[in-house]
Amino acid sequence: METFDSVIIGAGPAGLFAAYELATLNKNGAKILLIDKGTRPLKRVCPLLSPKEKCTFCNPCHIMYGIGGAGTYSSGIINLRPDIGGELHELMKSWDKAQELINYIDEILVKFGAPKDRLFQPNMERVKEIQRKAAKVGAEFIPIKQRHIGTDKTPIVIENILRYIESKGIKVAELTEAFEIEKKGSEFVIKTDKLGEIQARTLLVAPGRAGARWFLEQAKKLGVDMIPGPLDIGVRVETEAFVMEDLTSAVWDPKIVMYTKKYDDKVRTFCVNPGGFVMKEVYDDGTIGVNGQTFADRKSNNTNFAFLTTIKLSDPLEDTIEYGKSIARLMTRLGGERPIIQRLIDFEKGRRSTWDRISRSTVKPTLKDATPGDISMGLPYRVVSNIIEGLERLDNLAPGIYSSNTLLYAPEIKYYSMKAVVDSNMETVVDNLFVAGDGVGLSRGINVAAATGILAARGIALKLGLL
Fold first, then answer.
1. DSSP letters of 88-109?
2. What long-range pairs does 132-137 form, CB within 8 A, spacing at least 24?
3. What tens digit of pLDDT does each residue of 304-333 get?
4. Residue closest to 106 by CA, chosen among 18, 17, 9
5. Which of 270, 179, 180, 260 is nearest to 222 (CA)?
């Protein structure tokens, strides 16, 4: 059985940045392994990038797994605030230190090829105007400095980081799945398909959202303290770009948060893609979802964004992942294994859309591999009510959103694991077991996921005597 000083499971933002930090700190030649269920970023084929090649992108191993994580073929927007994408400032108990770490992540991305000229500072004059409008309808508009890497550029940046990590002696095992973790004495035994059983003095688990269910099973067995996490569920909205231009001209990826009057539920915009494309996601359990992309060098006439409502469950049903999966399974069947597309006016009136009705919209769908239907047949009534109320209020900030022309795609579900209880080094109550990223409930985006990975790496470096 091969033994390593440290093993990192998962090479999404958390695992990748942890490996980068360890590679930088590793002056003593510690033996480190990074494994991922998927493949290298440039092997993850996207049909939008290479339409003449055989499409493997809808293989869940390529879209949800792989070095770089599920965000590799997202829009590549990095929010440069510690309170967007998680609560890094609370984890670090300092806003200034958290912001410093976010800035460090941005520096790394630029160092390895993120476009320097695509740093978007909030237009504060426009922001204040929008904030005044938002206040009138009980919403909050959050100004954020953001870097846009682009769906086409992100895999290249990730590949560059990966090559640096390898050049520093860290072993990378792609297409390698970890099945089980056991604690034997002071060390961990990880059972894998490609490497067999391997042993680690320290272990970092960063499985990403797609690995959240697997992590929860391992955490229960290992004795990791966990607390329930939320679930974000809703639709992806697509409209003509000029409808959202007032917002996207102020902030590239505008964040708007509101609480519904009927249920007092949180509703928010997420992952806004100006001039972007809606994409289909296929998960390893066979369920279907949607997401959005924005390219640095290619644009559509539309803007799309997720519009999500946050669901929190408590005793006796605390498993938000299974609740979300049950909705995804139903939506997948209703759509015939395709996302459902519907005009907003049909959604509001509770009637099924058809391609004929959709053709009357001035918004031309960027995702054709979808099934016209009735989204309300699959989403809970409470979620439907929140979406309708939220979009009606959002129309005050972006006139034209609450229109018969607006298109909706479903399901858009963001799964978050039950949250692992950790210390400031991301170490759990199990000695030498560290966790990081979205799949363990510590983040909700690339920026904070990467930050938790770096914090975990520094904690591991202390254990290994690298600091």
1. HHHHHT-HHHHHHHHHHHHHHH
2. 133/396, 133/397, 134/256, 134/397, 136/396, 137/258, 137/393, 137/396, 137/397
3. 999 999 988 766 666 777 888 899 999 999
4. 17
5. 180
> Which pLDDT tens digit goes with each residue over 80-116?
999 998 999 999 999 999 999 999 999 999 999 999 9
Question: What is residue 64's predicted lDDT score, i.e. its pLDDT?
Answer: 66
Rounded-to-integer distance, Cα 170 and Cα 90, Å:
31
| Domains, the chain | 2-114+149-227+420-464 (3.50.50.60), 121-144+230-415 (no CATH)
- Burial classification of residue 129, based on how many CB atoms lie within 10 Å of its CB (0-12 exposed, 13-18 middle, 19 or more buried): middle
Q: Sign of the CA dihedral 370, 371, 374, 379? A: negative
Residues 125-181 pLDDT 10s: 899 999 999 999 999 999 899 998 988 889 999 999 999 999 999 999 999 999 999
Above 60 in pLDDT, residue 208?
A: yes
Tell me the pTM: 0.82
Laid out side by side, the sheet with 231-240 consists of 139-142, 255-259, 266-274, 302-311, 231-240, 407-415, 340-343, 371-372
CB atoms within 10 A of CB 296: 17
Greater confidence (252 vs 80) lies with: 80
In the sheet that holds 119-120, the strands lie side by side as 77-79, 146-148, 119-120
Q: Tell me how far apart the alpha carbons of residues 160 and 170 are, in angstroms, rounded to a whole number.
A: 14
- The closest alpha carbon to 292, from 370, 376, 366, belongs to 366
Q: E-assigned strands of 81-196?
A: 119-120, 139-142, 146-148, 171-173, 178-184, 187-192
